[in-house]
Fold these 4 entries.
Entry 1:
Amino acid sequence: MQSRFTVSRDLDSSPSANLLGTGWTSRQTYSAYGVHFALQSNTLDGIALARPYLPLGWQESKGNRVDIRYSLYFASNCESAGGECHQLFAGTDRIAKSCDSRQILHALAEHAQSAMLWHAKTALFVHAGVVGWRGRAMLIPGQSLSGKTTLVRALVQAGATYYSDEYAVLDKRGWVHPYALPLSIRSVNGHATKRAIEQLGGQRGVEPLPVGLIVITHFQRGSRWRPRELSPAQAMLALMDNTVAARREPEYTMPILREAALSAKTVQSKRGDAHRIMTKLLNELAV
């Protein structure tokens, strides 16, 4: 699979410096998980406006190394008839155009997180819910709508520590690090609301943990919990199916997935109500 994200190396010589024939009056560089980003804007407050939309883990950095560059152009006459639109570029590719600045900033958030997940050099991102319990982590791999957020929330309500409901961040040892995004709680009509774990009475983890239990499951109404244990090879395949960049550099990703799979017990089963199995899972992790 080829990356769809534009990569550049030199901030000053990039063609994006002359996009729209404008000058970029504010610039800042960031780094996250070994990837270096640049953000530039044609307005003095452009960077400040964008900062709340930057992905979790981004930190300001210094230096000229840039892997991915974003350019935010805010039009001064966007609301007038025939006026310009706000625009967002990644490298020289325009990825968003709108008279609603919030749409531009949300496009930045989505694209920047995807770019970070794909290009990360010091961690591997797996679609999974994660909780901690008595010094070890439980991974619940799964894509959106598999029910992992509901199960993570139930486990936290049972006393587990919250690490993530979206991505397991694995280091080279196969240990999992916190990526405590707000939980995406879906209503009966499918609308998702973001809630911080503290709003739900939970506590977020802060230290990396070894993986002790991998739970391969999805919600099916009325199903009984009948787990069967999987081999490390089967566990590794399940993790690979949910890894963002599993096939980008197999010589990098495969050893990390192997370490996680070998360190943990892996069980698989359909499940019904999350509250019926949360205690069983925590007891399994504590063994």
Note: Confidence is low (pLDDT under 50) at residues 1-17.
Entry 2:
Amino acid sequence: MLSYYLDSKKKLEFKNGSFRVLIFTDMHAKRRIDPRTLAFLEATVKREQPDLVLWDGDNVVDGPDEESFKSIVSALAEPMERRGIPWAQVFGNHDEECCFDRKIQQKIYESFDCNISKSAPGIHGVGNHMLPVWKDEQIALAFWGIDSNDYLSTDNDFYPGDLEKAVLLPKVMFRDCGYAFIRFDQIRWYWDLSVELERLAGGKVPGIMYFHTCLNEFAMVPYNPKETGMTGKQNEPLCPSTLNSGLFTALLERGDVKGVYCGHDHTNTYEGAYCGVRLGFCGSAGFGTYGLSSHYDSGPHQDADKHALRCARLLTFREENVSEYESEIILARDLIDMTPVEYIDLV
């Protein structure tokens, strides 16, 4: 199983003692797009010169056919494709709004020269993958991409009745709780592959996991900001699945994943450490979706407050101590002209 993930179109390696990763999430790209989304992607990649770019779900939410979808992806991926920078993606709950399923989308993503994502066969979700990072011909770091699936109303093949109705009782722990959860076979896939990776490397390989919808344990950070060393802010309630997948405890038992990064909650930018695992949000990079001041307004003339937290997250790893990495939010307002502009057509 491990050999499938070691064979990549582009080898990820530490350069000059470091490895830098940009995470963009919730671009919510459509055939008509706010050009500030594209400007932000270009400016961030140009300035940071990352070794890897990750898209954390809700990437493209429009496209009636494969040709239109590929045109939208091409516009978003252009900063990496032009520079030869490897990139990969996971799916969010809105990605299937493109009118065709994720398996087809995954094939289109993989058709790009610099896209290095894969899709683990035989388990739930699409696009589950592991990306190894090498140092002196040894694997020093691993990135785990997981499909957090979409909704309880659709991802419920194991349940004999109406799962969403059974789960969403009158009083629940989180708002908008009808989201699916990461399935057991996905967790087992991570566990088994992690064990294989440890055998190959001669020790546990530090890892970062990224997926769209956060885990319930993310709530422990804003509940305990001092104890978790919280940075950034919580600007909206969390939206995990009501059902706890058990992934977090699996990560604790394996002991190799050092950080988990999610999107979905567009205006949350916080990060903190719970039980030694860093849990962080990546905000949202797309100017065509909800932001701070107005919910779900996708018109062409939005106010500055709404877009104040359009951002990406930058992770920087040093080869002398990969487990202790740097993490920061990159704000669009620091890089591009935020003046409202008319939408443009990509298709």
Note: Confidence is low (pLDDT under 50) at residues 295-302.
Entry 3:
Amino acid sequence: MPEKARKLIRFFNQPFQYIHRRWLVVVISSAWVFLVAIVLRPLGISLSDHEHAIVFIFTVVTIIVVSFVMYGLPFIFKNFYHPDNWTVGKYLTIPLSIVIIIAPICAFLVYFLSVKENKVMDVHPFYRLFVWYARASFVAAVPTFLFFLVGRNQRNDIVLSDKKNEIINNNEDDKDIISLSGSTKDSLTIPADNILYAEVLRNYVSIYYKEENIVKQKSLRTTLQQITEVLEPYPQFVRCHRAFIVNLTNIADVRGNSHGYQLTLNNIDVKVPVSKSYTKAIKEKLDI
């Protein structure tokens, strides 16, 4: 099997966040169809003497079809739509099912009204159906992409939260006090879990940590490699950039793509960069 095909299969089999607010899909999809019908006036609407009636009918049909796909199909095919087994591929069957059902209905409605108004278009039925499938796919692309982004972000947040809890549970009995020092007399002795992140600034490493819920900073004349070696026994600390070490248990959000990520931390208004060379390691640690 070609490598691209294997990547595509892996993508479709990726776990995905199940859409529990199914009513929201119905509302947003119907509103989007209504807007498109009003603004773009797809094939057949502009030729009718009852444009507003057709727009209303399209909206009602959308509500019925989307409701059936979101509520009826999960009721009929309970195993397939089970939230615990939800994947990207299964999510994409939702817009696919909607397009397959709604396109011929809309094509028939427009043809029926054109016959009633004696405005039959000289177009082959199969071509007309093909056009409606193409238009329905185009219209469905926007809400599909929107819900995909929302679902992916929700999934990442859940995985991130679970991973943080796992790290915390693995270290809940490990309250070791660590001491960080450099080539000068300055040093920092604190519980490991209190460290938020470390950043290289010229010949110093700035340690950001919390103490009594207040974020503080301490600069030590040392290297990030030396700090890494001290923190090596603690799996929650990961090198994410040539100039940064971050505490995974303090990550609040992850944003980015394969070219690089940014980590938002709790307790401090800062975004820690993840360089491309460390992206794979961070993704494995956070299981995203």
Note: The chain is about 50% helix and 20% strand.
Entry 4:
Amino acid sequence: MFLVKLFSFTVIITFIAGCSKLDDGCTSIEAKKLVSDIVVEAAEKTLIAQTNESGQLMFDSAKVRATLSLFSVNIDDIRTTKNDPNSTKKFCAATLKVSIPSEIFNEVIKTREKIKAETLVQHASGLGFESSANSFNKSIEYNVQPTDDKKNVFVELEGATNLAKLLDEVVATVLIKPIIENADASRKQAEAAQMMQQEEEAELQVVQQQELEEQQNQQKQANLDLVKEKNNVARQGINELWGLMPEAKKSLLLDEQRAWVKKKEIDCKVEASTTTTDPLEKEVALLSCDTNHTIQRIEMLKQHLGV
């Protein structure tokens, strides 16, 4: 996974020697510094040109330069491979060594794991770098040529952009870390807010459910009070009617009356038990059944009285 888009640059850097004598060899301090500067500047140009999906620049140029300054880019194992007999140009081979501070190296590893990117070692290997702890090495070729007056030296490094890819990726990983952390913080904050909202909604639902249950219980109690009153009226009615019954008629109807009372109780218990399991509703069903049977019995008893 590449965190940066790559751009190609043709890089030739001039070193100005001033009044002192210029060392124009492959191993000169000037040449080594210029090769290092070429790689760093190629990385910088690529990074500061990065844009996001909205076309906005991703990285602040000052932060890019400050981060690059934390890394060590050295030129080791230098050899002069060729001297041009027709010019002062010298062709050189060396090892480019990029060293990353251990603390930054470890943070880069963690960040790349978090974003599920390939490891830095894997990325470096794909670019042709060999890794050793927090350092990465790659063979390079460059050429050095002084000006005729020996005051300036030109260094040309082919493939500088490719050599800078490793720096690009490391710096990009370092710079996106706070972006990722901010995104994580925002996500966690949003999740916390959502969880709080869900908890508040759940609490509200509990309160609403409790209020509904209380209202339903009040409604059931009101229904029970009403059927109780109706049942009392019905019982009072049948008792009064039975009291008006002549003794001879009472004796004649007593067994039937007792059988009716027993059947009424059984029928109403069965009806109530099959209607609901709620205790209040079951009592309402039982009393309503009792009232209905009693009213029907009153009408039958009235026939016996001739009223």
Note: The chain has two domains: 12-193, 210-305.
